[in-house]
Amino acid sequence: MIASDLNLIKMVKDHYWIKRDEVVEKILFKGRTFYNKFEKVDATLSQAVINQHIKGEEIIAHSLINKRNRVENIVIDYNGRDPERFYHKTQLLLREEGFINFTAYKTKTEGHLHVYIHKGHTTLQEAIQLGKTISMKLAAKQPKQWRMFPSSDLPDEYNILTLPYEVYAKERGASWSKHM
Q1: Whose CB has fewer CB within 10 Å in the chain, the N or C terminal residue?
Q2: How far is CA 64 from the centre of its chain?
Q3: What letter would DSSP give residue 79?
Q4: What pTM does this model have?
Q5: DSSP strand E in the chain: where?
């Protein structure tokens, strides 16, 4: 993974999250209890920190929601067993829905993907609604083996994702798309 691959994701870089071995915080949210193992670090997410993550020295996560409750990416966290099939069906659906900029990244677990849909400057509520719509349309075509981020069912401290390790596939607007 090189820096330009991560620059495809417009990450919130004014802070980051680092995974600890013990529970850092107990969060009560909508009648549920969450035990957070990620600690928020109020420092810039620098290339040195990213390199620590890529080398496996630390597990680093980034927030999806910025200070102004805006979202740059809607993310599909795929946790199934057939990433090729999932990505193929997902890219067809995203193109059909008019999303032409998206990138799939491999995670630490083999076969799992994070598909970042680069929406840009979207309100949190709009991003949650778009995520639900995309998820519903995907579920009509295949068994549901994913979660959508950001999610209104999780506290802000859980609307984070670990940094990816490798690019799986990327789609950057085709020249023919403007004629559709």
Answers
A1: C
A2: 7
A3: -
A4: 0.90
A5: 16-19, 25-29, 32-36, 38-41, 60-63, 70-78, 101-106, 113-123, 146-149, 160-162, 166-172
